[in-house]
Amino acid sequence: MDSLEKIVSLCKRRGFIFPGSDVYGGFAGTWDFGPLGVSLKKKIMDEWWKFFVENREDIYGIDAAILMNPKTWEASGHTATFADPLVECKECKSRFRADKIAKNINESVTTEEFLKTHTKCPVCGKENWGPIRKFNMMFATHVGAVLPDDDQEITAKNIAYLRPETAQGIFTNYKNVVDTIYPDIPFGLAQQGKAFRNEISPRDFILRDRECSQMEIEYFVNPTTWEDNFEKMRNLQHEFLEKIMGLPENKIHELEVPAEDRAHYSKRTIDFMFEYPNGQEELMGLAYRTDFDLTNIAKASGKSMDYRDKTTNETFIPHVIEPSIGVERLFLAILSSAYTEDEIDGNKRTVLKLPANLAPFKFCVSPLLKNKPELVQKAKAVYDKLRTKYGNVTWDDSGNIGKRYRKQDEIGTPACIVIDFDTLEDDTVTVRDRDTTEQTRTSIAEL
Ligand SMILES: [Zn+2]
Prior knowledge:
This protein has helices spanning 3-14, 35-54, 71-75, 78-81, 98-101, 111-116, 152-157, 167-171, 174-181, 226-244, 292-301, 327-338, 373-390, 401-411, 421-426; strands spanning 17-19, 31-33, 59-61, 83-88, 95-97, 133-136, 140-142, 159-161, 187-196, 211-221, 252-256, 268-276, 279-290, 307-308, 315-316, 319-326, 339-344, 347-352, 363-367, 393-395, 415-419, 428-433, 439-443. It is of the alpha+beta class. The protein folds into 3 domains: 3-69 and 169-337, 2-Layer Sandwich (BirA Bifunctional Protein, domain 2), CATH 3.30.930; 85-136, Rubrerythrin, domain 2 (Single Sheet), CATH 2.20.28; 361-446, 3-Layer(aba) Sandwich (Rossmann fold). The chain has a 7-stranded mixed β-sheet with strand order 3-9-10-16-13-12-11. Strand 22 (428-433) and strand 23 form a beta hairpin. Helix 2 crosses helix 12. The model has no long low-confidence stretch (mean pLDDT 93). Bound molecules: zinc ion (ZN). The site of zinc ion has 8 residues, from loops. Zinc ion binds at residues 89, 91-92, 94, 121, 123-124, 126.
């Protein structure tokens, strides 16, 4: 097994992540978070919110609807350009993203360029391709009462899309926020939520799924200051990823995205790449979106998107710096840098060295022996006390103590607390450290 397979297997075995609709044989590109996974995911999202919104005075939160007026996607350019180059094998009818199966081509590849690469079909091995067609990745749905036998005009009129990015929910609320709280510039609006992309071939576990959670900030700045603010946001991302999420600095690599590969709205983009078990992949993006979105919204809605500077009275459409991160990508980066196999006194073990602020449980409490009521009673009292104080504390009295340690190591619990006969005498417990496996004696009052 390679290390990504090992992580996928641990995720399923311990209840972090299950394949979506598992009981029906799955549903491509979807994943469900189990009890431990949702705990880790929530902690990631809460830490982000604390770091970027609650602990700052210049960034405010919003939470927009997933279904938005279809004009949104006309104005943003998604209806026209949010498309992948789809190519079909004429032999076996398999469909692929052309830029993912051929080397050295990008998303704007033409049929002619693709054929020149002489790529063979990954499924049947033949080389017999149809033309490249643009496939829009937005999920379409119908809003209101629409029946299959309604005429085409009615059906087309009722089409809406599941949002392909959370960003537009921010841009479309920019004016509401400016009109209601009139923040000093620069200011940011932050949002967390689901986004949907109809990926042609979802793969790589949760890296390329059809439904994902995003955390995005649109940081509105005076256009003359975009470079300084870009640097500010760039440094903040490193601080968050390395200090708060605990990702190793040497596994994060910045990639300056060349003009021809940038999204249609961007004048500068840095991709933060991460060394995942199966190679470098994008972890997050930092983009200078200029006034592209606000200008298009102003044109499409007929409403002014101007901002008036309170001190200089200067009026302008703000430019935007956008840090955008996928929760699942961050989740997998954290899991893969925490995943460790080591050997303690000749015994192999798997341990998730999760940072303490992200571990699903802070402590595991257990009685040394399950069949001694006085130990169980004392352990329950310690468990209740710690749960009241910290919340995320778990109980385990199954199997022997060694087995309990193995299990807690695998789910990343930083410390195991064991109540034994000495506890009954002097109110001290054994605290066993996940990473070093060292055991120390501590009084209950100090926990
Ligand atoms: Zn084929």
